[in-house]
Every structure is written in structure tokens, then in C-alpha cells.
Amino acid sequence: MRRLFVAAVAAAGLAGALAHDSHAVSRRKTLSFGPILPHSSYHTNPVYHTSLLRAQDPFEVAQIFVEDLIRDIPGGSYQIREDSYTDQATGVTHIYARQYMNGIEVADGDINLNVKDGIVLSYGDSFFRPQNGASLHTVARDVDPHADYCRALEREVVSQLQKVDVSKPDHGVDREALGQLGDLYDWNCQFVNLPDFMAESPDFASAEDAASGDVTRALLQFMIAATPSEDMSAEMLANTAKYLSEMRVTFEHHLTGDHAPTFTVDNVPDAVNPVKGRLAFVQVPNGDETTLSLVWKFEVEMKDNWYEAAISAEAPHRIISVVDWASDSPVPVAPIPPKDQEGATYNVFAWGINDPSVGERSIQKENFDTLASPLGWHALPYSNDPQSKNLRLKDASAIRNTTTTWGNNVFAHEDWEGRNNWLTNYRPDAGSAKVFDYAYKPKQTTTDDALEEAQKYINATITQLFYTSNLVHDLYYRYGFTEVAGNFQQHNFGRGGQENDAVIANAQDGSGYNNANFMTPPDGQNGRCRMYLWNTANPYRDGDLEAGIVIHELSHGLSTRLTGGPANSGCLGWGEAGGMGEGWGDFLATIIRSNKIYSDYPMGSWAANIDKGIRNYPYSLNDTVNPSTYKTLDKPGYWGVHAIGEVWAQMLWVVSQRLIAKHGFVDDLFPPKPLEDGTVPEGDFYRAREYDVQGNAKPLVPKHGNSLIVQLVLDGMKLQPCRPSFFDARDAIIAADKTLTGGENFCELWQGFADRGLGVDSKVEGRTPWGGGVRTNGARVPAECSSDVPPPADPTPGDGDDDGDDDDWPWFAWVVQHSTPFMWLWPF
């Protein structure tokens, strides 16, 4: 495939136009694609159901509701996932149901319900439903989503090359966009024909172990495609029998219950840990219907990637879908630290100073939030300490106080070797006083010495990364990224959720330059943040010192854990969903650095040494500076998740300014710290606390526009379905405002989205999993907000979900919002 791309470029005379750009952001190999389920839907209209109102427990409500939804599915059942939880701030219970067919998990069959006071506020549904009377065993064996994806990439290359203007010196070519397409060819399509080739290979087809032969063959085939090393791919192809014989499969069977077998595979080439796997179904669109494919689901941790892959269980072993959990940049009373322990101090760029170009370093205190980090940033129980696993302790619950950048939320250290080792990597030790005060004065050197010069200041770098990461943890905690929601902590203080998953933060990671990435496995496994040096200037610039990049990366962990539930890391893998994963990171980094006096903001400008930053445009209210609209996603170069993401971030930026114009701006996004009894004062941050008719406190509402949009964005992530579209995420934010404020910002939110083409009349036709389709901008807002909006471009309103159902805005939503509990609205 890469040869096809190179040949096409050469034929068009574009070799010079695609010459290496020294300021380009380096890209690691990553696979990520899969089908869009045409029947997947998201409904934001509250469902008042007579049988539901008799139930008090939200899980009972969910059971009644789900069983009503699936009563006509033959052979179908479901399980309520253990990562379901109640948000203590909003009172909304987020419940996740996973589908099973004849005892086997349908890995992309999800229903997420948002329940409060016996009412299903909203829900997403992607359960498999046999069509046209087909039985469960209408299984897709010949459908090849991988080949479909690659054919679409070919069409996109041809489309872009047809637009080349050879009369222009630069041929009118977007070099970065073509470069990204070339990488997509190289990474995703080089081995598209491998399943058929390997099925005919005698060595490959005759695995010694009949019980595990299909597992190892499918996994080895995936590793051939996934490894970034061409030499390793060639070696595996040339010696398939050797690698198959060396892999060892260990199955785990259960004494009771109806469980499909799970297993681990050891000695997997290019994997850094044993591969986890299980048997499952996934859904595959096949013409006018959707069928099931029986797959091996693998979790493959590699040096630069952490894949969740679905590979056909039967030969030929086709890749059905693959998500890379690594994303690039571009309460009980908790124990209190001993009173004689003084907090740490750090010489850093203080919170709010985005990078060295906009401020100086200063001494900052360990300003931890006692609600988010009860032990502070440098302490954790020995029982949760990875460095204390082999110690024999009389009291494993005792607290270990550290003097390095090692704590309950973050383990920060150097990783010059660029490997996965981290337990014993170097960290600065500030001694008992915990004064992390280190020099940072890099000077210009020769190119050969530039790396060594940057490494001289590793203590300052690690300190900055630790400081910024802990503040991000505490900030997101206060807006609802708590233990039950899947946050990253070693010890959860008895508050629920899975623990032992603090962020492993690599400073000056030696595996590359000019990038950053974050790996987000499910709740209970450590997230990994890797920050790089940027060789875009002399002296080298250190990405650890640009807060926006760190915040962007940590926000991948936030959005991945909140969307679809803490135990599901496969919801933001590709297309619009994957793009929004990037967009939320850019938006949150931008709103955090913003000031009361408005200005535009680029992303990654300092590290990359480019004024406009590493995105196509700075984030701006001026549509000349940033012209991005929903329709922009149809342009060449907007297949990649970063380009899609910056359109979403631009929309959120415009929406945020609508709320700021209405509610004003608060200088500090951190809510007031809790009182000694654990209650949170309103201060000048929240509105005066309100109570319902039973005397129960309602959720606290941030009173300013910039704090309110952060709350709504995080609440919207919790409400939206797995694999959301732009429409789903928009509707979830509007639904979050309905829950939090009663919908008082309904019109401002709609107007903000409509300003950038995502109004009620926006739509998409032929949307593909990787971002294709034809989009129509919509400037209309719902009728009750339309006093001064342009006339509709399309007389038929639509919610963009292409289903033609009755939940289309605006009329049905208006009826729901103005109904009473005595107006029963059925879900069908």
C-alpha cells in the first residue's frame, strides 16, 4: 500500500512538496479502525414509564428498562457491569449493560443508562438485534472491514491528488495531510491481504497445539501487522512455525457461571507483557444488515502501543477492529498525613503559566486538595506501593511518606532509554524538607551536544511533570473524575472504583522526539504518560514544561475512562469518537490557560517553535483566524483524529465563550477546598446551595461560564454513549445542563454549536468509521431560541443520527422538556 501511495505522489510530481519538514510532529505507528454500527442510537429525552416510577433503586430501573428493550432478541441476555456507579455530585447513576448471546459476550453490544429519581434521563443502545428473522448463527465470515477501510483510503488519496494545482509552486498540497495519509497506508494497509496469504501457508496452518492453534495463529498474524519493525515482520513471516511453537497459551476456566474462556499468551513477539485474551462476538455491518463475527479479543501491550484488537476466530483471521489505548498529542474519612509533616515546595512554572514563553518559574507549595488527595502528593499506603511489594510489614495499611516524585496519584521519573521499565528509574530526592528546587538554564550548543544539555536539567523537568500532573488530578477530581468514575490512584480511600492505577509519567522519554502520548487501559491498570523532548529549537525544548501538552495527554485518561464506563477503554478508537478524544484534551488545556481578557490560543506553540502551534489553526472566535465548522470534516486531511479533534475543540471553545458572556469568568478554576467536616463551601465559586422539596441538597452549580463549561463537558462524557458521534456528544452536554441547572443554558449551548455548523439542521450522509461522509452545516437552533437565527437550510429538522425517529430536535425535545411527570412518554 505504501508503494501505491509513493507511486501516486511521484506520478503527480509531488516529491519535493513532501520533503521532510523539520518542524513536523513525529508520529509513531498506530493501528486504529473498525466498523460504525448503523443501528447504534443515543436518546436524550427523559423516559417517564409507569413501571419505572414504581421502582426506587436505579439498578432496578435499569433492569426493567433494559429487559423491555431486549425482550424480542432471541438468545440474548445481558450483564450489568461492575463499573456502574452513582455520581455523588449530580445524583445520576451511570449504568452500563453488556450484551451476551448464548453465553458469549458481544464486545460492542452496550447500553448505557443515566438514571435519576426513577427516570431514565438518557441512554445509548448498540445491542445486536438479528434482522429479517435471521438467527444468531448468521455469522459474518466473509466480510472484511479491514479491506473496506483500505479501499476507502485509496479513494481518498485519489481524491486529494485530483485537487493538486500543478501551476502553484507548492502544488497547492497540504503536505501534513498527505503525510498522514501515507502513514495510514503504511501502518494499516501493508498487511491487508495477510489473512488469505497466511491461510494458505503450510507452516501457519498447522499449529501443533490444537486447543490453542487458532489463538496463536490469529495473534501472530496480528503481531506481524502491528509491529513497527519491518525486520520483525519479515522474521515472523519467514519463521512462523518457530514463533507459533514458542507462544504458550494458558486458559482460565470458571467453576460456576456461564463464562467464555479467558486466557493469557506468553512469549508473544514484540509484546512487553503476556497478552490477555477472550472469545467474543463483535458486530459487523454487512450490506443492509448487521451480523456477528466470532473473534479473539486481545489486549496487547507493546513498547509504543497498547492494543485492544478483535481478530476473526476462524481462518482467515481478519482484523475486524483495533483500538490503540495509547493516544498521541498532538466518602469514608481518609487518613491524614502526620501533623509534623510539612508540605513540599517546588520551583516550577506555576499553574496557569502554560510554558516558558509566558512566565517565569517560582516557588510553589504542595497545594493539594484534601478532598481529591487526602494524603497529599507524596504519600501512599505500603499495601498499594509498587516498590514495597516484597517488604514484610506488620501493618500493610501504614502510610509511606516519600521524598521523591512518587505518590498516590503520579509516579514521575526520567525514561531516557525509552523502555517500559519504570519502578527504579531516576527521580529527584528532595530530602526530608522536600524542597524540589533545581536549576533550569539550558544554553545553545552544537547539535551533537543538544540532547546532553537538555538532560542536565532532568530534576527540574521531572519536578514540573509531577507538579502539573497532580494538579490536573485534583482539578478533574473536583469536577467529578472520582474513584468510582475511574480516576488514576494507587489507593482509593474506600471510596469505590478499582485502585492501583496511578499515572506512570515518563519525562524526556527516549523513544522519540516532538510528541507525547498517553495509554489508557481499563480502570485498575496504570495509565502511562510519555513526554518527549522537541528538537525544534536549540536548546531543545522540553514538552514536560508546556502545561498544555501535559494536560492534553492526561485528558485522554479522563475522556476514555468517563466515556462508556471505567472498565471500557474501547469507546474512543477512531473516526469522530477518536477525534473528540483529541479535541477534549485541546479544549481543556486551552480553557485552563485562558484569562479574563480574551485572546486566541494555539496548541503546542512553544514546544514546536511554531507561532500558530501544531494544529491547523489557533483556537479563536474569529472565523477568519479559525474557520473550522462541522463541514470542515469533509476536507482533505481531516481523516486523522487530531484534525477531527481540533474541529470539536474549536466548537467547544465557541460554546464556552457563549457561557462566559452570560455568566462571567472566574480566575481560578479550582473549587473552594472542603471544610474540616468535608462539606464544600459555595464561596464565590458556586451558586447558593438549593434544596428539593424533600430537603435534599441539589448539585452545586459553578456560577461562572468557564467553570460551568468544564463541569458540563465532564458530565457530558459520563452521559454520552460508547463510540459517540459529534451529535451524541453535543446532545450529552445539553442534557448535562438540563440535569445540573434545569436547562437554563439550553439556548446558549445550542447557539454556540450552531455558530460552527452543529445546529439542529446539521446532518451527515454516508458517514464512515474513519471520518468519511458528506456533512451539511446547520445554523438553526430550536424554535424557542430562534428569535434572530437565519432561516432553515433544510425544512426537515434532524438530530443527525440518520435514524429518522421521533427524538429529532426541536419539537420532540421541547415537548419533553415542558412535560410533567403525568405526561407518560414511552420509549418505543
UniProtKB/TrEMBL annotation:
Provide ranges: composition bias, Acidic residues: 799-809
**According to its record, what are the GO cellular component terms?**
extracellular space
| Entry note: cofactor | Binds 1 zinc ion per subunit.
DNA repair as a keyword of this entry, yes or no, is: no
Query: What SUPFAM superfamilies does the record point to?
Result: Metalloproteases ('zincins'), catalytic domain
Pfam families, sorted: FTP (PF07504), Peptidase_M36 (PF02128)
What GO molecular functions are on record for this protein? Answer: metalloendopeptidase activity; zinc ion binding
Keywords assigned: Hydrolase, Metal-binding, Metalloprotease, Protease, Secreted, Signal, Zinc, Zymogen
**Any GO BP:** proteolysis
Residues at the catalytic site:
553
Signal peptide extent:
1-19
Its predominant location is secreted
Q: Transmembrane region positions?
A: none
Documented EC number(s): 3.4.24.-
- Locate the region Disordered: 765-809
Compartments in which it is found: Secreted
Q: What is the uppermost EC class here?
A: hydrolase
> Domain FTP spans what residues?
83-127
Q: Does the keyword Protease apply?
A: yes
Binding of Zn(2+) occurs at 328, 552, 556, 582
CDD domains, alphabetized = M36 (cd09596)
Q: Which family does it belong to?
A: Belongs to the peptidase M36 family.
Task: Tell me what this protein is called.
Answer: Extracellular metalloproteinase
Q: Which organism is it from?
A: Ganoderma sinense ZZ0214-1
